[in-house]
Amino acid sequence: MFHHSSKLQYEVRVDKPEPAFAKYLQQAIGGVEGEIRVAMQYFFQAMGARGDAKYRDMLMMTATEELSHIEFLGHAVALNLEGAPVEAKEEAAKDPVVHAILGGMNPRHILSSGLSAMPVNSNGVPFDMSHVYATGNLAADMMANATAESGGRVLASRLYNMTDDPGMKDMLSFLIARDTYHQQQWLAVIEELGGWEKALPIPNSTPEEHERMKDSYYFLNTSLDEPTPEGRWTSGPSLDGRSEYHVEEKMKPYGQKPDLGKARPGSGAQTEQE
Amino acid sequence: MFHHSSKLQYEVRVDKPEPAFAKYLQQAIGGVEGEIRVAMQYFFQAMGARGDAKYRDMLMMTATEELSHIEFLGHAVALNLEGAPVEAKEEAAKDPVVHAILGGMNPRHILSSGLSAMPVNSNGVPFDMSHVYATGNLAADMMANATAESGGRVLASRLYNMTDDPGMKDMLSFLIARDTYHQQQWLAVIEELGGWEKALPIPNSTPEEHERMKDSYYFLNTSLDEPTPEGRWTSGPSLDGRSEYHVEEKMKPYGQKPDLGKARPGSGAQTEQE
Amino acid sequence: MFHHSSKLQYEVRVDKPEPAFAKYLQQAIGGVEGEIRVAMQYFFQAMGARGDAKYRDMLMMTATEELSHIEFLGHAVALNLEGAPVEAKEEAAKDPVVHAILGGMNPRHILSSGLSAMPVNSNGVPFDMSHVYATGNLAADMMANATAESGGRVLASRLYNMTDDPGMKDMLSFLIARDTYHQQQWLAVIEELGGWEKALPIPNSTPEEHERMKDSYYFLNTSLDEPTPEGRWTSGPSLDGRSEYHVEEKMKPYGQKPDLGKARPGSGAQTEQE
Amino acid sequence: MFHHSSKLQYEVRVDKPEPAFAKYLQQAIGGVEGEIRVAMQYFFQAMGARGDAKYRDMLMMTATEELSHIEFLGHAVALNLEGAPVEAKEEAAKDPVVHAILGGMNPRHILSSGLSAMPVNSNGVPFDMSHVYATGNLAADMMANATAESGGRVLASRLYNMTDDPGMKDMLSFLIARDTYHQQQWLAVIEELGGWEKALPIPNSTPEEHERMKDSYYFLNTSLDEPTPEGRWTSGPSLDGRSEYHVEEKMKPYGQKPDLGKARPGSGAQTEQE
Amino acid sequence: MFHHSSKLQYEVRVDKPEPAFAKYLQQAIGGVEGEIRVAMQYFFQAMGARGDAKYRDMLMMTATEELSHIEFLGHAVALNLEGAPVEAKEEAAKDPVVHAILGGMNPRHILSSGLSAMPVNSNGVPFDMSHVYATGNLAADMMANATAESGGRVLASRLYNMTDDPGMKDMLSFLIARDTYHQQQWLAVIEELGGWEKALPIPNSTPEEHERMKDSYYFLNTSLDEPTPEGRWTSGPSLDGRSEYHVEEKMKPYGQKPDLGKARPGSGAQTEQE
Amino acid sequence: MFHHSSKLQYEVRVDKPEPAFAKYLQQAIGGVEGEIRVAMQYFFQAMGARGDAKYRDMLMMTATEELSHIEFLGHAVALNLEGAPVEAKEEAAKDPVVHAILGGMNPRHILSSGLSAMPVNSNGVPFDMSHVYATGNLAADMMANATAESGGRVLASRLYNMTDDPGMKDMLSFLIARDTYHQQQWLAVIEELGGWEKALPIPNSTPEEHERMKDSYYFLNTSLDEPTPEGRWTSGPSLDGRSEYHVEEKMKPYGQKPDLGKARPGSGAQTEQE
After folding, report:
1. Any transmembrane segments, and where (chains A, B, C, D, E, F) (predicted)?
2. What residues in chain E have per-residue pLDDT under 50?
3. How far C199 CA lies from chain D's nearest CA (Å)?
């Protein structure tokens, strides 16, 4: 069960409201790199967690923290919209500054939300829950979470660079810090469970006889004119310790030329296809 | 520039067509765990790759391989739809077997595609390109790719379990194998670049003064009644080697109680809010 | 800031797991009538609330309650999926009961989530945040909320009818009860603010000179052959007390026949249009 | 069956074309507050209306009116785009005014529609029919309609404020007027059917034994530190006349701590979860 | 301006209600091949039509007809849902026939719409207005319309085959007939304007100097092992009469190997990319 | 199976990077008129092609070419983003030129992709695979393809007009040329198969007894006040040679007034509807 307390997890201070930056901040709320995504992702993973219950608890606790991130970011958006134009005055209409403000804003911050945050990204595209990755496989979920936090910290760093407002920089430095931790939190689960050697290949419960092992350890060069880019992935022991990597330069296709024959009468094709 | 050769990368054999399994296979084509996603994700990452050109080449080569996976899966869907009902005959209409087949199929495999594959998932929801994660940050992209391949191999393993068709099992064992490799391929890039210690926190180019470091290394227990789930993430050296993990049991909120004051005249609020 | 405690707000008991009912329950989680929607809607309304702060508090408190509803419904979905088939065994494949179970399930409950809840509706369509209505106008928001709770209680009543499981009926009777209250909670705000007479038309801050008042109080019969359906809306005092309703049987169009003239050279039209 | 006559329902006059305002107007066509939504919502409600046929007729008549609103708004968009730049001339490219026009426009008004209206909102996001709310429950539908018209009038009022064009203000004053009426039209149905006391809780056909009545009349304070916001919803008779409101300050969770146990072999989890 | 009359354009008779067929029919309402799409496509094309006004009139007249098609199809859906189960009775729950009915239905026909039509396709995916193609180019629009009617008639023919209900077959035979005409109606515009020779390439207003003419008339064989499929498109005069077709077997890429160099500091990349 | 070679199909040269034009170019990548769409459309049509195998080969070859178009357009987007602002410097923040650049850009080109292409359109809306039209009917597919190429060439022509950059104009002149050819390529298939007379109505395999032929050849004038727009479609032989066109001025509705009667108990309606 969820509860709420009245103060924001982190202080939000906007020294100079900037409607365009409100639009930018939306990416951290409703973007695929944003906080709705991680809050909901960890929440759904927690609800589907099977196995050691501590992972469920951990997921739910961090889901709850992310809800608090949405909350202070939402406030930051609203504060950046204070003073944004809501009326076209004749003089203003000629003012290039007003034009620039309007051109840089999300118009729905005026028209739809009345100067407050929306669950959309910086293009105004609503967040869609297909981005909540929760597979029921602990390792796959941990990877998805570390990925989400990586994208999140990349975004927060870019937002930090795109503002000169000290209050906003301060708030973003907190987000950057929490994303630092959360990246490692999820990767630490993998380490605790024995590291990549034990976790890979994900799912590690797939029996070897379900896998065509002779295709499991080579890099396939599909280029007609480029040499294989050599690296850790082209030779040496595999990360799961089961084999050695090698390279297939020009794989001969294993399969047939596909052919579906004629269309069946009654299937809606042209007569010529039947 | 892309080229094509006429044979499938892997042989597709369907011993007993099963229209319901055609629907299931769609998840591997148009699901978020599917092949359109990885093909397009690696393609867009390649197009945006900056830094050492070998990663660009590697991404493009594997993108190209994934296009070939779409191709043989698409053929597998069509072969599973051979013989599916396209006409309601009066006798058939009473046959529970026909009903079961129809109830288990995607109706659009009859109505829209004429018994062939579509770029949709197993619920018939079209793939949407917002799932193509390409950040311009090499480490974040590698994480996203290893995640996608983890979800992909979980899916392929489940599909393997859900069919008894030997041809389908054989084809899926190839997919499972390639997903094994691709998981490691992307993680190997991280290892080659110095491992998690060097890669984390992602982006590793964010200056420390942009980060509120005192919030970077603790697990936040947001539960009112659960003890902190202890693990690798609650104590010991951080994975990036910069600090030690600890726990915050009951964080005192840093922030204020939010308050937006009154609504501005002309902003479309009720009079009572002004 | 959000917090969590470990027990569910309401007990979830599934006497006989029913994978098809798990699919049905998804509508109450990720449908437009569902709990993600109301949780997020009240949350975003709270973050944008201007005027008397008590409405903000009230919105945030109920948003928090709705998050707890997602949580127990998510558990109910998972419990209904216990025992669902994850492997096609040759014998099972011939069993009509297994076929019926599979035909009635969401395949992604097996393939994507590993037998647990997803943020999707009963068709498997992911929830999309465009359904979070938050206008910044208190009365419009209250209407949207009472509407959401009406749809929610219609849904919960239908789900109640569609199951014979005593545990599920018990859980749904709690949801029905809370939806009863929440409908009235939001309408009570309107009553407290003076009722419809004061609230209407929404927004009540629009100056009368912005409104073409002669078009504000008639029902327009656009039918060529049906008499006007008479009722409270065709005569008598308007609900806002400003006028009397009447009927326009055959409104003469006020406007012109539209004409855009020729296409401009360089605009990508056919030559014949220029 | 539908018919059309050649003149617009309301006159559209644009004194000074403003491509940015064309983008703003799109919200009234393809936004969730817009005319496609209400036209389609009333149309689908009419097609599903059961019970007294007069409500069906009324819904269809107003659906038809809303189609006419799309039509004149579409013309208004096109007229605002007259004269928008379709060619980058070298001199123009340096002109800050041209830049401001282009920055404020929807680029697809040039690239995709050739200077005319599209079924998208002011962010260019296409309207999606999941916003057509039609439940088959008359009262829930009336609520949804009054809500839609409230959002619509809030939007129209904001658009009115955002333009200085006399023709556009005139057209919007007509929309504001019709939204005034339509809000009341739908609420009048509820009044005619006996008012909230009879209509609530929606659906009023749910038997009391399907509802856990002891949870039907309290406000739940889920905050850890805020007092309950007192109001019409915390005490006094309920709007449906069945009970009295009260407050639950600290509800003890009714439910258990959720636990899903171990993952099943074959379900695609990690071995450690089994 | 739109008007309505009370009778359906075509009679709807359902001899034996079939909830699964209601789901199938949804494709003709809310699918990409369906009637909402064509109604809205012709409507938006009409609103943006420039040049000879008769095309605008024609588009609006047919848009209006398509609205009437939605209407009778919506009624057909509702009639097919008459008698569908809305309550799980203990005995019924064991009945395989009831199971088959439920497995074949769209659950939202029970849960969300209360046994009536929705603006969704046969997978329950809502129609999304991005499918309304209206370019402002008359010939491109005519092509899009003939395409939509082709998909529509393919669908109607498949639906015809999938039902044994005489009433439904009769109704579909009307749809098939109207789609026959509408395909030709739009193609006849192209013929009237001088046929393909004059219309192509679309837009025919693009000056030849904007086109790299030496790449305008060859079929590019991108296969490594397949001979060029010979046909009307590989030799002979081009359809626009401007040139002759030929074949490029192995085009030498015109372009460079792409290279973006290093990432810029401050752009959120990894340090190794800079 | 797919392969790749390292050079771009066409040279990409950006003389003066223009971040706003990067946003515009996105329409040609991820718009409905763009290259992802055609690449995937031809690919899925090829996978579902039945009948003469040469059409399958032709589709796959051109699908492959379109993948190469995505690739060079993606590079063009990245080159236009070179030098775009990634940091808000105090001086810059006051510079109207910087403001204009930022206002005209897609903010996600900075925040999400790190200055490279995304699979989105010029509004930042991700491409969604529902636009991949592949019906299994050869003629319907050819029409859809010619339509897509028409929209594509209209777009490319508009993009050509909207830039002054010689490199971009050169690249677009290649796209315009290829779209010229592809329009005709698909229409040539129809000509080869006997032209419209044989192809129409699509599908030409629908038996005449499935069609209510008396409704197959008239233009329906649904206007109350406009004369029928006369043209090739109102008289003369039909394009399929089966009949003559005529006009229905005022069609008498064939159907009934729809009536669904009362709502069923248990279906979630209001009591008044039962």
Report:
1. none
2. none
3. 11
